[in-house]
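Following the same procedure, sequence and fold were stored together, as reproduced here:

>
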Amino acid sequence: MRVAVAGAHGQVARRLGRLLAGRGDTVVGIVRDPGHTADLEDDGVTPVVLDLESASVDEVADAVREADAVVFAAGAGPGSGAERKHSVDHRAAVLLADAAERAGVRRYLLVSSMGVEQARKGTPKGMDPVFAAYLQAKLRAEDVILPRTALDTVILRPGRLTDDAGTGRVTLDHGVAFGDVPRDDVAAVLLELLDAGRTDEVVELVSGDTPVADAVAGLP
């Protein structure tokens, strides 16, 4: 399998890249910072330096061409303001979708977030405005990308991410109660979703008792 990962130096993305490369898949990692390329190469990932806040559709399409799937795991990151939430978490995600369509890549996995529906009607009372902007940006990306008939899209909404060691056991379903999930397990679920070829759905993910492979296979 050939997989292109946007935001490839992120904590979940690097875990996914190592899983894919470790079993012999080809991984193209899109990163903004040239200083991150050595880390990706150490992971067995082929880096492509592109700033998704300024790159053209054609530039991104060239990077993902011939991929079997693309994964959007980029994010503006902690400490960034509301505008970058929209420029990365929304617009860059849509740019990757545009590029995948242009390059003829159907499969698109979008890493979103639990809680996005809270922000559908604006900033919930008492919520930090920047965090609300993050949720709004993720939700706007979901709303734009999921209906596209040229893409086979899966949106994964993990709960609060932790650096705890993965357990390989999760709860993966629609309408899951909010909770935590190790980044290791998020990467493992993304890998399983890639292998399973799921399409056109939104699923939520927290820690649980079901082995990852069974959790994905058991999705309705």
Helices lie at 11-22, 37-43, 57-64, 82-103, 129-145, 183-196, 212-217. The longest strand covers residues 152-158.
